[in-house]
């Protein structure tokens, strides 16, 4: 279902969806009130929901759509403004699974091409074959139609000096959960986050985390020291890495070409952190489409660091964590609600 007050946008997206194959536009709506009625009637697998609409806007319509058809996966669409970024993050907390930045003008060819590419990627990642048929990793000793993913044995205990987190689709809520569960130990370790987000969104996301955690959380600044008790988010549109300044770890921001079609890229953070922190780094790969983070995780493992990934059953999209698991470089494969506790134990246990 496509929900947008612009007939031009509805028609454009409908054409793109028809070209993908395997998808069908079951209905369109020009406002939130129509969307709620149509969600109950047509029961769409995926809802593309604009924020700014007459009568009932996207934020107000979202919970009503999910009440009418709880199985719908809602992707919020908005133009890049701070207000819309704040609303989009609020929508994620209310049950939307992802967001998509809409170009300011459909006449801007480059912006429209990026919008189309991102839309197609998200639809394919969220398609019926992905999240709804996921299964948990079988426990040891239980029967399974296919072999359970194997994890690496833990190396010797090294006191973690930095927590690295990489995430994409479904990531904001997953990051929130991990950090909230880890909160008692956050004052003892710095946290560096690469979340695939547009520039405007990362600043708002950092502000949201600061409110949630009551700790210093902000977009990273080039050259700033990496200190315990601080959460730094990679700015949208810029790579975030790590280097050593006067022998101490510091943030490095760069404008190099995208890696894995991403900027910021998780691989860059992981790769450079492996060189600076070595075995004292601990990395977490959360829900997200694609394979960003796998190459960097391999570098971390070679350096003796620990890599933890979110399991398939609790991920919105098991692309990024699944890629690490398939590469055989995960030390732990955990449901989302167990990751924070595992990290807390690792930090506390290694420092005794």
UniProtKB/TrEMBL annotation:
Locate the CheB-type methylesterase domain: which residues? 153-350
* Alphabetized Pfam families for the sequence: CheB_methylest, Response_reg
Residues in the signal sequence: none
Keyword tRNA-binding listed? The answer is no
**Where are the 4-aspartylphosphate modifications?**
50
Gene3D superfamilies from the xrefs?
Answer: 3.40.50.2300, Methylesterase CheB, C-terminal domain
Broadest EC class assigned to this enzyme: hydrolase
Which keywords fit this entry according to its UniProt record? Chemotaxis, Cytoplasm, Hydrolase, Methyltransferase, Phosphoprotein, Transferase
Q: Explain the purpose of this protein.
A: Involved in chemotaxis. Part of a chemotaxis signal transduction system that modulates chemotaxis in response to various stimuli. Catalyzes the demethylation of specific methylglutamate residues introduced into the chemoreceptors (methyl-accepting chemotaxis proteins or MCP) by CheR. Also mediates the irreversible deamidation of specific glutamine residues to glutamic acid.
Q: What does the similarity note say?
A: Belongs to the CheB family.
Q: What is this protein called?
A: Protein-glutamate methylesterase/protein-glutamine glutaminase
Q: Which organism is it from?
A: Microvirga makkahensis
């Amino acid at each position: 279902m496509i929900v947008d007050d612009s007939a031009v946008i509805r028609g454009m997206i409908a054409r793109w969806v028809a070209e993908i194959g395997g998808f069908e536009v079951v209905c369109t709506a020009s406002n939130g009130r129509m969307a709620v009625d149509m969600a109950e009637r047509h029961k769409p697998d995926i809802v593309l929901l604009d924020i700014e609409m007459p009568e009932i806007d996207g934020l107000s319509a979202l919970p009503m759509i999910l009440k009418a058809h709880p199985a719908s996966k809602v992707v919020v669409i908005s133009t890049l403004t701070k207000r819309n970024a704040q609303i989009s993050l609020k929508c994620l907390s209310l049950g939307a699974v992802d967001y998509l930045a809409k170009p300011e003008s459909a006449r801007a060819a480059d912006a429209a091409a990026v919008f189309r590419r991102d839309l197609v990627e998200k639809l394919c990642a969220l398609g019926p074959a992905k999240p709804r048929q996921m299964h948990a990793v079988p426990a040891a000793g239980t029967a399974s139609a296919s072999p359970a993913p194997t994890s690496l044995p833990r190396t010797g205990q090294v006191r973690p000096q930095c927590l690295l987190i990489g995430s994409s689709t479904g990531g904001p809520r997953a990051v929130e959960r991990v950090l909230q569960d880890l909160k008692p130990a956050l004052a003892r370790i710095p946290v560096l986050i690469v979340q695939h987000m547009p520039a405007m969104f990362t600043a708002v996301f950092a502000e949201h985390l600061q409110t949630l955690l009551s700790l210093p959380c902000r977009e990273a600044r080039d050259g700033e020291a990496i200190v315990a008790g601080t959460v730094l988010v990679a700015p949208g549109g810029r790579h975030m890495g790590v280097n050593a300044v006067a022998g101490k770890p510091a943030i490095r921001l760069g404008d190099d070409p995208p890696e894995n079609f991403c900027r910021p890229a998780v691989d860059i953070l992981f790769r450079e952190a492996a060189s600076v922190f070595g075995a004292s780094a601990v990395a977490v790969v959360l829900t997200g489409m694609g394979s960003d983070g796998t190459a960097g995780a391999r570098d971390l493992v070679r350096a003796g660091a620990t890599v933890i990934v979110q399991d398939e059953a609790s991920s919105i999209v098991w692309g990024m964590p699944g890629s690490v698991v398939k590469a055989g470089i995960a030390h732990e494969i955990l449901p989302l609600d167990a990751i924070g506790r595992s990290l807390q134990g690792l930090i506390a246990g290694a420092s005794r």
